[in-house]
Specification:
Blueprint: H1 6-27, H2 32-43, H3 54-74, H4 78-109, H5 114-125, H6 129-138, H7 145-175, H8 184-223, H9 226-248, H10 252-263, H11 269-294, H12 299-302, H13 304-328, H14 333-343, H15 348-359, H16 365-402, E1 425-428, H17 432-443, E2 448-452, H18 455-463, E3 468-470, H19 478-481, E4 489-492, H20 497-510, E5 515-520, H21 523-531, E6 536-539, H22 540-556
Helix pairs in contact: 1-2, 1-3, 1-11, 2-11, 3-9, 3-10, 3-11, 4-5, 4-7, 4-13, 5-15, 6-7, 7-8, 7-14, 7-15, 8-9, 8-10, 9-10, 9-11, 13-14, 13-16, 14-16, 15-16
Bound molecules: adenosine monophosphate.
């Protein structure tokens, strides 16, 4: 047994167990992240058997946070960020305030002093980047308006926490912890320096980074080396995150977010995003494992009521606060509920705050255990909230459709608007391939309906009076909504063969006589798709080859 390679055993142990428990969770129809957390508890120090290195796991998790935020930055532009600032800034600040007050209230009830309550409350107020992004990504919400508000909100929370982490040690004496009391003047100076550093960081990124990052990537892309390009993307994401933390004292996540956002302005961004995907997913898994590792399950038995109260603040208290704020800004209930659900959990920042609080004597041991217990339980509850939200969808749509005060049309479809379609074509995906198909069908006046998971695309289609459903075609209910049972054709024009396989299998069950044509990219995919019920497969590469060969052969003319 190699005992001297803790990094390897931690990565391998974490990934292998996460895989095993994740698969079991999936089999039991639970989200895989439940399995990752359990894997973490299993390799953690509080359960018998193999124990991975907690410190290392924490650092690996941090890489996950960096890559995730980089990915989010890639889908975000400065314009998007500015668009949501009027709600994200007050929203996040008011929510932090309310959650902190509730935390102080609970702390006061069990006899802690205000300083301890403040750290505890702050830790309960800030949502986890990874949990929020995983939830949004799974539901393809990152690029929707509600997703952007949630992410903007998260970024404001991030900046607020950066300030808190700098100010708490300075204020420790005043709050009743270690360290001397400082004067108001000194406090103001510290605050000004911290804010100045954040501002300087943003300015440097926008002025210098904006020129340097695309310049580097274009040079590297010109070398034609894929390997170097991948490395460049990784180096930029990680390098900027670390540099931002060392030089400007901002969080890793914020540094990576800005690096991604700047990249998004150049044409290369999509390629860059794809290059960082596999690594990002692997490290996000390690994040959940590392959270599980910190958890001491005995707190559930020692202080069940306190754990319950903590979870209540995180899941119910914070949600209601967010809900009311978003509604107060005139948003529809569906948007408010999605944002509230996204933020009803805590994670990495809470652990950092807890560790800092303990080191300054500003948080009792129980406080840390409660924060961890609250984090684990709220992360476990989070997918349930989204599940409940999906269930509420039809009701919300009916409600929002009726209310006259809602200016923005809901992105979700009104399932009942197109039951009249008969012998029609269901077209899944309206990207480079789908839009050409739709053009041809429309020209021939063939009836068809589109299923697409980008809401702006769907809105544009509807503006052109083309029936379009918003959502993932693999999700339950989507094909039914497109009246697949009476359709003649299903055309699956999305690039992901695994997802396409699920879609056609489901469609085949609903309509055994359906003609199904699917897009494929390799002979292996062709076999896979045919096995799942495709009647026709169109492989892009084969068509391109035939087209090119035809060009030559037809140009030669008769001999
Ligand atoms: P392209 O590769 O450019 O033809 O784009 C594919 C299109 O399909 C994009 O617009 C995606 O948003 C969309 N898409 C991908 N997967 C799904 C899915 N499972 N359900 C609905 N639309 C999808």
């Amino acid at each position: 047994m190699p005992h001297d390679v803790p990094l390897i055993t931690t990565i391998v142990g974490g990934l292998v167990l996460a895989f095993l428990f994740g698969t079991i969770a999936h089999r039991l129809r639970m989200p895989p992240l439940v399995g990752y957390l359990i894997a973490g508890i299993a390799v953690g120090p509080f359960t018998p058997g193999f124990v991975a290195d907690t410190g290392l796991a924490q650092q690996l998790a941090e890489i996950g946070v960096i890559l995730l935020m980089f990915g989010v930055g890639l889908h975000f532009s400065l314009k998007d960020l500015m668009k949501v600032k009027s709600i994200a800034i007050p929203g996040a600040l008011v929510q932090i305030g309310i959650a902190t007050l509730m935390g102080i209230g609970l702390a006061w009830a069990i006899g802690w002093h205000v300083g301890q309550g403040l750290i505890f409350g702050l830790a309960l107020s800030v949502a986890s980047t990874v949990v929020l992004l995983t939830a949004l990504q799974e539901r393809h919400l990152v690029e929707t308006k509600r997703g952007q508000i949630a992410i903007g909100w998260l970024i404001v929370e991030d900046i607020a926490m950066v300030l808190a982490l700098v100010l708490i040690p300075a204020l420790s004496g005043v709050l009743g912890g270690k360290g001397a009391a400082i004067s108001t003047n000194e406090l103001l100076i510290t605050l000004a320096i911290t804010l100045g550093k954040v501002a300087a960081f943003v300015a440097v990124m926008l002025i210098i980074g904006r020129r340097v990052i695309p310049w580097i990537l274009e040079r590297i892309a010109a070398t034609g080396s894929r390997e170097l390009f991948r490395l460049a993307v990784l180096a930029i994401a990680l390098g900027f995150a670390l540099g931002a933390a060392y030089i400007f004292g901002v969080s890793f996540a914020l540094g990576a977010f800005f690096a991604g956002m700047i990249l998004a302005e150049s044409d290369l961004s999509h390629r860059a995003a794809e290059e960082s995907l596999p690594l990002r997913d692997a490290f996000a898994v390690l994040f959940f494992v590392s959270v599980g590792m910190l958890f001491d399950p005995s707190i559930l038995v020692r202080e069940p009521l306190l754990v319950l109260a903590t979870v209540f603040i995180i899941v119910v208290g914070k949600s209601i606060a967010a809900l009311l704020i978003v509604l107060a800004f005139g948003n529809p209930l569906g948007t408010a509920l999605t944002i509230a659900a996204s933020l009803a959990q805590i994670g990495e920042f809470s652990f950092i705050l807890a560790t800092l609080g303990m080191s300054l004597d500003l948080l009792p041991d129980t406080g840390r255990d409660l924060i961890l217990g609250g984090a684990i339980l709220s992360i476990l509850i989070n997918p349930l909230l989204f599940f409940g939200l999906d269930r509420l969808k039809p009701w919300l749509q009916r409600r929002e459709g009726r209310s006259p005060g809602v200016s923005q049309a809901p992105a979700e479809p009104d399932y009942r608007s197109w039951p009249a379609l008969q012998s029609h074509t269901v077209l899944v995906g309206f990207g480079r391939v789908g839009h050409l198909i739709a053009g041809a069908l429309a020209e021939q006046k063939q009836p068809f309906i589109v299923i697409e998971n980008q809401d702006d695309v769907v809105q544009a289609l509807r503006a052109d009076h083309i029936p379009a459903l918003y959502g993932n075609a693999a999700a339950p209910g989507m094909l039914e909504a497109a009246n697949i049972a009476s359709a003649r054709w299903l055309l699956v024009a999305i690039p992901d063969a695994l997802e396409a396989g699920q879609i056609i299998e489901h469609a085949r069950k609903l309509n055994p006589g359906l003609d199904i044509a699917v897009r494929a990219h390799s002979s292996e995919e062709v076999l896979y798709l045919e096995k799942h019920g495709a009647t026709h497969t169109v492989m892009g590469e084969r068509e391109i080859a035939e087209g090119m060969a035809d060009l030559v052969l037809s140009a030669r003319g008769p001999d």
